[in-house]
Structures are given as structure tokens and as C-alpha cells.
Amino acid sequence: MSDKNNHVSIDNSGLDPQTNFSLNPTFAAIVDSRMARRNFLKGSVGAAVVAFIGGSLVGCSSSDDGELAALIPPPVAGTAPLLGFAAVATGRTDGIVVPAGYTARAFLPWGTPLTGSYPAFLADASNSGGEQEQQVGMHHDGMHFFPIDARSSGESSTEGLLVFNHEYIDNNLVHTNGITTVPRIADEARKEIAAHGVSVAHIQQQADGSWALVNNSPFNRRITGATPMELAGPVRGSAKVVTKYSPDGSRTRGTLNNCGNGFTPWGTYLTCEENWAGYFVNTDAAQPREHSRYGVSSNNGRYLWETATPAADQYQRFNASTVGADASADYRNEPNTFGWIVEIDPFNPDSVPQKRTALGRFGHEGIIFGKLEEGQPLVLYSGDDSRFEYIYKFVSSAPYFKTTAGGHLLNDGILYVARFNDDGSGDWLPLDINNTDFAAKVAAAGVTFEDQADVLLNTRLAADALGATKMDRAEWGAVHPDTGEVYFTLTNNSRRTEEQIDAANPRARNVTGHIIRWNERQNQSATAFDWDIFLLAGDVGTVTPNTDLTLTTDNHLASPDGLWFDKNGLLWIQTDMSGSQQGEGPYGNNQMLVADPVTRQIKRFLVGPTDCEVTGISATPDMKTLFVNIQHPGDRSKPNNFTSNWPDGGNSRPRSATVIVTKDDGGVIGS
Ligand code: FEO
Ligand code: CA
Ligand code: CA
Ligand code: CA
After folding, report:
1. How far is it, in rounded angstroms, from Cα 154 to Cα 567?
2. Whole-angstrom distance, CA of residue 534 vs CA of residue 368
3. Is the dihedral of CA 130, 136, 139, 143 positive or negative?
4. Which of 213, 247, 333, 354 has the greatest number of C-beta atoms within 10 Å?
């Protein structure tokens, strides 16, 4: 627990533990050649500088607001050719590198005063828990820019709400001397919980083109690991979410390990709970399947919050062991209130975040909507980022209509899991207790579920029973704005063996990852699809079979993670290589590339600072301001011995931050 300097050593390396030991088949096969099947829109084809290091650091009770207008802006017309920039080289500078003609500025780093009394960030990280609750959280991740007029025209490119996730905390950096004692000091735990969650920042472009936080805006808000939330959908009221805090199973506190994100057509934000299981401990002799299948620890919570002293309910809830007379007297069910997609209405600061349980419970990386079609069901995709887990799709029961759409559409529908067949076809398998095929397969697997809430609480187990395809760690998805084609990153899986390869996960010891894509048959809610592999990541010379794509020094990459289509149909790819892969591999620091999905032309656009991850991306409607998040710069730091000093420079403590990228001639990003 403690190293020789008496610093508590908390292992952050196992963030994506393998917990799927089910016996689903893996198909020994290679990627076979298939007929070209695509009918893309024609895409346009088209001296790195170390840009700026540091810089301008200026910095209803439910969200079912059904009457809000949709806001999908039209494509930018009459712009310069895309991918016209010169690719940047790989590198290991402790700064942001973007192409010549572009500028990058850090914005809203961890600790930026955001609400309340706007407490200043203290460079020695000595801010209290109460101060952190009023400051931007740590470890920025998924993000979305909502134009300030999102609820009407959605056209503002100069003012909006920037909403972004805080995935986790670095225990070596969050306090002056790192985490030093067990049992934990209550205010340290309070600060760490407050550094998680989501920030809502009202931002405005200034006359000189820079962006600044609107101080004292009523929209500025922190949602943390302690914010009261409601459970919505089929699991609300289930006996398995009854806790001392919520004896009727309708409420919980906080959202944790918020990784990727989504945003709805009705102008709300979706945050995704990924590696939440490790925050809890259950020391019971036998854990329930709702804990064991997800990797809840039997030793201690990830940051030992359950030990916080003086003890308080808000910390004891991380102990999910049976200690009370029944579920309403302890927190045995607290982990069951995590693992969900959470909807937040950034335009209503008093709104209570809603955990949308119909979308399933797993290690949600992100969430992405299928192409919107008036009068048709809503379709959403989400990957479970853990080794050998699955990709899911949700189809709403009610049709989507722009004028009436709202969060209620996410409370009722069918959740499916993907099976990628070796012949390039695929099937969506329903996790629906009323479906006869599901019932038969579950019975054959010897698994029983009480009701649909039980299925959803045990989404992974239900997917096991259906024979879904075990993937190489599904991260973000992206949907082409015109064609509706779906792309997903599969970041890596070093544990896949030769015997376990299948057509969709074609490499053993897959340390560099790949990107898969598919088209639904007939329409977005179809239960059959056709897929192929868009990109095999790797070193220079890596070939993606059955394509003319061979990676070069302009685009070699590993561990693709963040993925996003801009409105012009360019696919942005962000990488999350481990510290050793960045330090020792041929790829340099983590980076962001941009691809034309039609031609497969790919160019590196940005390289991040030392020991960071590049994750989270959004833009203004005019595509002239790009927001990118830099997470955990200086990831391998020890207390007061930093491996990065980004963004403040000098000997400063590294801080996760957003980066604002603009083109010096005021043009469209990527042109
Ligand atoms: Fe939080 Fe799977 O990355
Ligand atoms: Ca990720
Ligand atoms: Ca990752
Ligand atoms: Ca991360």
C-alpha cells in the first residue's frame, strides 16, 4: 500500500481489467476478401511548428425536456479543400504540435475557478475539497460544445457551453504531496470525488479571437462524484438498487470515471461511466454477479474512499459489503447504481442528472447517435471498453420527432449486442426478456433473470449468453454525418491469443489496435449489418488487408481511442498509448490524426505533451474553433517530481486541460 517514501501507491494500470471469462466462441479466421460494398459520397483530398506551450488560461427536476428543437447544423459550404495541411511528425516535446498555419492554446485546465466563490487554483495543489467543488475537475476526457442558441438555431460559433468529462484523478498530483495516508483523510477524499464528474463552462470568444470563461454565468456548473442523481428507465425502483440513501431505489449520488461522451439532438449532454467498478469494495465471501462480472474489488476501493476519516455516509457508501440488516440499511447495492449513461441538461443548472438504465450497464466508453430520421426510432451505439467485451446498440421504442424529442426516448427500447460474423455480415442480438430467442439462449446457458431490470443490471452476462463477439476493447464510435456508416475504435488487446482471433479481431497480441466500421442493412434500426476493417493501426508499413492503405510516417499510430466525425465528413482519430508505448515505441507522444473515410488518406494533425493522452473533441458549428482535450500530461510523475510541466511551463505541476485550435487565416479546421 505504501512505498518507501510513505506515499500510498494506488495502481492505476489495471483500468480495463478482463472480467469476461465466458465461453463465447472466437472464430479462427482471417479477414477474407469481400466485395466492395460502399457507396460513399466523394470526399475531397487534399512545416510543423511547436505551437504555444502554456498560454491563455483564462480562462425542472428532470432532463426530459421534450419540446426542444433539434440542432444538427448543416454542412459548411464553400470551404477550402480538406486535408490541405502538411502532416506533423511524431515527436516527444512537452507541448502541443499542430500543422503550420494553426495555433493551439491551453484553456480551462484542472483547478480553473468555475463556480461559487471562484477559488483560485493553488500551484502546490493545496486547494481543499470544498474549493475543488467550485473548480474545473481533473483529467479531461469526452467533451461537447453546445452553441448558446442550441435550443433554437444552434448557429453560434462565438458563444456556448463547453461541457467536458473528468475521468479520474492522479493520486500523485491531486494533493501537494500525493496521497499519503490510509485511512484516508476525509477532505482529501472529498477533493478527489469533486475532481471527478463533469464541468459545464459558459465560454465566449473575445474580440482578439481568444476564448474566455464567462465568470458568474448561471450556466457554469460542476457535477461531481457526489451530485444527487436519479435512476431513470427500467432499473428505477428495482430491489437491486435499493440503498440506505434511496430506500425506494430511485436515486443515487454522483457519476464516476466519465470517459467518452455523447450529445442528444435535443441539446443535452451524455456522460459515460467506464471503469467505475474499481471504486467500490465488497469483501463478502461471495459477491453477487452484479459486482463480480464487472470487477468490483474484494480488497479495497481504488482510492480507498471507504476508509475516509472522520467517517461519513458519503464515503462509507463505497463499501458495498453486507453490513446492515437489509439493503436499505447499507450500500451493498451502491455499485449497481453505476455503469450507466447519464443525461445532463447543461442549459438548466438546477436539473437533476438522469441515469438512463435502458442503455445497459457496462464499462461505457462513449455513446453515439445513429443518423437521425424523422419518424423513425432513435438509434445509439456504445462500446464496453474492457478486454473481450462487446459493442451494443439501443433502438428506442418510440419514434423520433424533432419537435417532441427528449430524454424520455432513452427510457424505453431494445438493447442489442453485436455479433460480427466471419463472412462480413453481422447481427444485432436483442437483450430482451420478452424475446423468445433470448429466453431460449439464456436458458441454454443456465442463466436466469427476474425481469428486464435484472437483464440490464447484468448486461454483460446477458450478452455472454447470446454469443456476442468479444472485441479488442471497444472505445469511441462515430457516425458519418451523411451516410450513417458507423466506425468504432478497438484500442488494443495484448491478451488475445492465436486461437482467439476472429475476422473482426484479426490479430493475436493486438498491441496497436484497429478501427472497424459497418453499415446497417435497410435502415438504422435493422438487426443485420455489413462490416469491414477500416484501419489496422501499427508502425510504418502496416497494411490494412483488402485496401490500398499502407501506413507511412505521416500517419503511423497505435491504440486509437477517441473518434469523431466533423460535419464535413472527416474522421478525427485520437490515440491513448500507454506510457511505455509512447516512451519506447516508434510513435512518440499521443496524437490526433484526421482521415478521409472515402480515400483513406490519413494525416497526423496534432501531437500532445509528454505522458498525456489526447481524448475528447468538439468544434463550433462553423468548424473554425476546434476543442481538444489533453488528459494526464505527466502521467508518470511522482509527487513533486513531474515528467511534464504542461501547460504552465517552468517547474509547474502538470494539469489536464482543453486545447483550442484555430487556423491563423481564420479558416476551417482541417482545410
Ligand atoms: Fe476511458 Fe476506454 O478509455
Ligand atoms: Ca478512452
Ligand atoms: Ca483508452
Ligand atoms: Ca484516459
Report:
1. 14
2. 18
3. positive
4. 354
Beta pairing partners, 426: 420, 529
**How confident is the model at residue 33, as a pLDDT?**
31
Q: Is 330 in the pocket of ligand 1 (CB under 6 A)?
A: no
Tens digit of pLDDT for each residue in 522-558? 999 999 999 999 999 999 999 999 999 999 999 999 9
Torsion of Cα atoms, 603 then 608 then 612 then 613, to 10°: -30
**619 touches 594 (CB < 8 A):** no
DSSP β-ladder status, 560-565 and 528-536? unpaired
Q: State the pLDDT at residue 18.
A: 61
Who contacts 13 (Cβ-Cβ below 8 Å, separation ≥6)?
Answer: none
> What are the domain boundaries of the chain?
33-663
Question: Which residues make beta-bridge pairs with 618?
Answer: 627
Which ligand has its closest atom nearest to the C-alpha of 274? 1
421: CA distance to ligand 1 center in Å?
26
Looking at per-residue pLDDT, the higher value among 151 and 199 belongs to: 199
Q: Which ligand is nearest to the CA of 12?
A: 4
> Is 90 or 54 the better-scoring residue by pLDDT?
90
Please give the number of the atom of ligand 1 that sits closest to the Cα of 167: 1
Q: Which of 547, 569, 565, 549 is nearest to 557 (CA)?
A: 549
Containing 584, the helix (H) or strand (E) segment is helix 579-584
